[in-house]
Amino acid sequence: MTTQAVKPRNNKNGWLSDFVIVLAVVIIAGAGALVSGGETDPWYQALNKPPFNPPGYLFGIVWPVLYFLMAISAIIVRRQVSYVEYAPTTFGIFYLQLCFNGAWSFLFFFFHRPLWALIDLTGLWFIIIAMMFHFGKYSKFAAFLLLPYLGWVTFAAYLNGMIVWLN
After folding, report:
1. pLDDT tens across 64-96, in order?
2. Residue 111: alpha-carbon gap to chain centroid
């Protein structure tokens, strides 16, 4: 049993909170996609890549799934607490990880700063752990949905770190 006080379930405007969550995730995903040239980016193409570097199309499959899981996870938690305001730290961490997530694309692809991007990614990894812990207070399933995100960010840290090392 959790130590959180039971919150009222009268949530007639909950759809607005859910919409804001989805909108924030879509904005970050879209901004990242705009600056991430990937296979068509000459700067990225010129980099020495590490072993196990996946083909570019795989990123276009994995990231939308991860963003979807991220949004669903946050919506599950929001529905457990009724209002975002009832869990300000939890949702503060959620929005903070979105900022770090979006910053990585700009640091790496737009500014061509792989080391800065790796530092950002390291922070993101710890923020995801914190988010999983906080989401888990309200829903173990919501925290579980974030495991693929944590796994992919761990793999991304390997790729990013190796690019720093090899270049």
Report:
1. 999 999 999 999 999 999 877 888 899 999 999
2. 20
DSSP element (H, E) containing 16? helix 14-35
Q: Using an 8 Å Cβ cutoff, are 121 and 153 in contact?
A: yes
| Residue 109 contacts residue 89 (beta carbons within 8 Å) | no
Within 10 Å of residue 106's Cβ, how many Cβ atoms?
18
Radius of gyration of the chain (CA): 17
CA angle 70, 107, 128 (to 5 degrees): 30
Other beta carbons less than 10 A from residue 151's beta carbon:
12
d(CA 110, CA 163): 16
pLDDT in tens, 102-142: 999 999 999 999 999 999 999 999 999 999 999 999 999 99
Is the full-model pTM beyond 0.70? Answer: yes
Tokens of 89: 């730290």
Average pLDDT (31-35) is 92
Least Cα distance to 73 among 126, 28, 136 occurs for 136
Instruction: From 124, 30, 133, select the one nearest 73 (Cα to Cα).
Output: 133
